[in-house]
Amino acid sequence: MTKIKDSVVLVTGGSRGIGKALVEELYARGAAKVYATARDRRSITHSDAIPLALEVTDPDSVAAAAAHAPDVTIVINNAGATTGASFLDSPIADIRREFDINFFGALHVNRAFAPVLEKNGGGHILTIHSVLSWIAIPGADAYGASKAALWSQTNALRLALAPRGIGVTGLHVGYVDTEMTAGVDAPKTAPSSVAVQALDGIENDAFEVLADELTQQVKAGLGADPAALYSQLARQ
Fold first, then answer.
1. What is the largest CA-CA distance in the chain?
2. Which of 119, 147, 188, 230 is catalytic?
3. pLDDT digit string (tens) for 147-196?
């Protein structure tokens, strides 16, 4: 089992929201060192965290981060973004941008740090997905598709990395009270709660963590007819 105490952790997107809460919870649990990344390292405000500049869409930036953090034993893929792109009306560049950040960004990080984790005796990767990995909502076409692809990446890497002593956890969340959901009028989970559940998942070697009731409901309904998940289809 992976232990947070005395671990060395890389958190992408560690300057705010869930990422900031993760850095705080990691130190509360006794992590020895936390590399917190952001495009602008000056945005990292935790006094103990080691700020690390990282652009996840740039393979050279990711390789440089791996070279600067050779002692990492846990990787948390938190960096993500949404443009609100729709498949029918938005520029293809906006859709591609979401995949570049949400899917390929995590892939760059995983490919760069898997050898680091293995060299350090094994470790753990946790990747933050979304309830939108499993259900589509208007205004989040590209975001949901990129997170669905990321879910598939996590499932594939779990199989590929297990023989190398690296566990892989996927964390799925609904609405979290961050800047990204500021305009959403719906129940939201506190970032601190997500951080607690994420680190519990790592320490329990969980394959998946479903961080709120909405996510649990949607996952439970995946085997049903699409009309059960999409009420608008049932009316047609």
1. 56
2. 147
3. 999 999 999 999 999 999 999 999 999 878 766 655 666 667 899 999 99
**Radius of gyration, alpha carbons of the chain:** 17
Amino acid at 32: A
Catalytic residue among 143, 175, 188, 230: 143
Please tell me the predicted confidence (pLDDT) of residue 63: 98
Exposed, middle or buried by CB within 10 Å (0-12, 13-18, 19+), for 109? buried
Alpha carbons 225 and 206: distance in angstroms, whole number = 28
The model's confidence at residue 29, banded by pLDDT at 50, 70 and 90, is very high
Q: Which two tokens stand for residue 171?
A: 């964390």
Verify whether residue 147 is a known catalytic residue.
Answer: yes
- Residue 189 has a pLDDT of 85
Q: For this structure, is 33 an active site residue? A: no
